């Protein structure tokens, strides 16, 4: 099957071998875990499994690039920057990875580009593929169970896969971690939480976390 913006040589196996030398063994194991969860979530949520797998391999390709270099790469790519991103360059590893995949691997599929770029801070709104990749990164097996279990629990509302509820839970758990660790909170993180919380309240009258 052909996909717009995905060259024919781009396969999960190719990306696995492309990513592996670019990151540490520990990060690679995390990436493998994200791929596994992304495939599972995609199957449950009716999202394209092939694209989810590609995104899983790509999402942390630039995770271990130094902060200053990420900021400089973002500038070179003419990406919009704000003071938080300039001061904490690690937040740019997703958008930079998306751009590197576009420039170096000619992966120009918009859904893939967005999903890789949005997997850390999220966006309002997110495509179904972006939601899968965002949640897969949160739910990867090396994360503490105290963090992941509320998200897994939120995925099921009334016996159905509920991505919005899981996104709210992931946002809540992420905010708790950032506050406890004294890290900055980007406005996008709050916007994502509020957006999907409101969407839940619209669909599920009286919904409460």
Question: What does the model show?
Answer:
The chain has about 210 residues and is mainly α. It has one domain: Hypothetical protein af1432 (Orthogonal Bundle). It has 11 helices and 2 strands, in the order H-H-H-H-H-H-H-H-H-E-E-H-H. The protein has helices at about 10-20, 25-45, 50-60, 65-75, 85, 95-105, 110-115, 130-140, 145-155, 165-180, 185-205; strands at about 155, 160. A two-stranded antiparallel sheet has the order 1-2. A hairpin with a 2-residue loop joins strand 1 and strand 2 (about 160). It is globular and about 45 Å long. The N and C termini lie far apart (about 40 Å).
Note the total helix count: 11
Largest sheet: number of strands, sense, barrel closure? 2 strands, antiparallel
| CATH class designation | Mainly Alpha
Helix content: 55-70%
Strand content bin: under 5%
Distance between the termini: 41 Å
Could you list the spans in which at least 5 consecutive residues all have pLDDT below 50?
none
CATH superfamily: Hypothetical protein af1432
Neighbour order of strands in the largest sheet: 1-2
* Number of domain units: 1
CATH topology: Hypothetical protein af1432
Kindly state the mean pLDDT as a whole number? 95
Which secondary-structure class do the elements indicate? mainly alpha
């Amino acid at each position: 099957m052909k996909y717009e913006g995905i060259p024919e040589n781009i396969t999960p196996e190719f990306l696995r071998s492309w990513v592996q030398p670019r990151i540490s063994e520990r990060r690679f194991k995390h990436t493998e875990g994200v791929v596994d969860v992304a495939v599972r979530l995609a199957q449950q949520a009716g999202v394209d499994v092939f694209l989810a797998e590609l995104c899983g391999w790509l999402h942390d390709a630039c995770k271990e690039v130094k902060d200053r270099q990420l900021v400089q790469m973002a500038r070179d790519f003419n990406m919009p920057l704000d003071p938080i991103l300039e001061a904490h360059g690690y937040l740019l590893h997703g958008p930079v990875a998306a751009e590197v995949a576009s420039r170096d691997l000619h992966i120009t599929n918009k859904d893939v580009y967005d999903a890789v770029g949005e997997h850390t801070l999220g966006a309002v709104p997110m495509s179904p593929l972006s939601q899968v990749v965002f949640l897969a990164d949160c739910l990867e097996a090396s994360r503490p169970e105290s963090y992941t279990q509320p998200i897994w629990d939120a995925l099921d509302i009334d016996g159905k896969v509920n991505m919005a509820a899981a996104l709210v839970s992931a946002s809540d758990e992420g905010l708790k971690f950032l506050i406890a660790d004294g890290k900055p909170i980007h406005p996008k993180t709050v916007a994502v939480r509020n957006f999907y919380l409101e969407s839940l309240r619209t669909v599920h009258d009286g919904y409460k976390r």
